[in-house]
């Protein structure tokens, strides 16, 4: 009977399947037996290390409790104070502290204090001379050893000759810690209680465990000696002189199965190989219909997408389809990654609010957790335009990859969890919080926990900054935002990090900037309105070509350096300075103002657009102003009557304190009509005579208000005003405040 295609395929593959699987099952059970033995050994090792760790934890707790009592317990401290020897309450309080100490440490059997200066011993129930104390020999030996060891080997202990011995392990601490000049505290851990704890921790049907002392003597075990099998593995304590020994006590199920020999393995390999050959032959014979189907699909795809170009070999067709599928997968993954990055950016830029359901649907490794504080950080490449000119786009992407990987390593070194993304070619944004283990080990909460987070984040950021500067040939500035308590508030931390990064302009680049370090400096910085007033004065002095304008410029930057200002604030201040200069030049002549706009003014605007730090402005802006001031001086000297105007200006500077100084008086001194002098003065300096005189007097008045305690009326007289009311009105017109207010602010 003719079989169907389904039946032929089924009976072709079924024998191959049965034979191959039977061989694999045989080999599988042999391998399982070996694996069971290896797992038993590994389980034994895990149990031994776990038991040792638990014992060490309890003994370390005893040691830490004792050290804490020595450091903070005033009753114990008073017991060793020679000045308080006669007070009977001192000994009673110290004994009470010993009893409380024993209650807090279940493994401890007894404890006592030994005082050096009067050779007396205080236990929880006795206060006697050291010579009558049955354990005095141990005290003498411990004092002779000094700081060599804290935990001793198992020994027999009793307080008086009338008591019976008990086996203990003693912890002794010299007082003061490290010297023993005042005495010592001894805590005795009961070996019997230690055996009970060991038995409760080490119960196992497969593993035999022993607790041994430094000499190899057995202190406790979890089963009879006769049940032990195999070689012992030793695990030494990091706390005291004891060791846990482990061995396999009972073989696991299947442990008696024979070990696979080379012959059996070879037989199994040959069977599998024959099955593969058989399978390949059958598949080749039945592949022809499938090949025809692939040809038709490929031809159809080619006609639809490539205009009917002929296909190639079957191998080429399969590669073509495989590439198409791979391309679809890559596009899907890239689309998911793009959506994740876009969501992350929108959350930080407050376009949308983060919620747990959407966050969990993303492919981030940074899980949603509202129980721990976190913060946002910005890592920005310094002087990025120069960086972009120096490196190609491919190199820049490589550097981004390197920086991201290095940041991940450093964040993990600080026991932190992180998520980062490049928001721009020059800016990487990352979230950082402490991991579960680090949070638990810190034992902190509230503000201390947040401070701990900022310290660890700043440490990782500083390590990243130093590594990049030392290995990659460029620098970065890192800004840390203020911590937030939940995932829904991460946009606030990012906004704060952006704000902190703006202060790079005054604090400088290639450093780590934190909110906690910047906030107090910003609160105490000079007020911006005072700096604007100084900028306006510089603009006026520059227009008048006064020699002191460059010194005023340096004083302005010194005042800026006393505080911390964002880049936008510095840009506004410098823009106002340039505006004051340009306005003054326009009053001189349109020709001078247009020349400034096209030459040094345009270069100054470019500098304001591209600068990153205050240092760049301080180095590059003065040379531009100095160059153009020389050009203005040349233009003025080329005009007629330049010397006349300069003499008039000098006469004003020397006689501004004269209340009778006027345009008429100056013109008489220069033998020129006052109308002609007024016109020439306006042409040369772009300012009327009376305005210049008022500004000169107010400038000197402001100096006197800042530097002297003279009353306002006396200051007015010193600058040529007979009536204080006129002086105050003129001063307020120029400075926007009264002389008294100006003195208070400066």
Automatic annotation (TrEMBL):
GO MF terms, alphabetically ordered: DNA-binding transcription factor activity; sequence-specific DNA binding
Superkingdom of the organism of origin: Bacteria
Stated name of the protein: AraC family transcriptional regulator
Species assigned in the record: Paenibacillus sabuli
SMART domains: HTH_ARAC
A family per Pfam: HTH_18
Domain HTH araC/xylS-type: 646-745
Parts of the chain that traverse the membrane: 12-33, 262-283
Keywords from the named record: DNA-binding, Membrane, Transcription, Transcription regulation, Transmembrane, Transmembrane helix
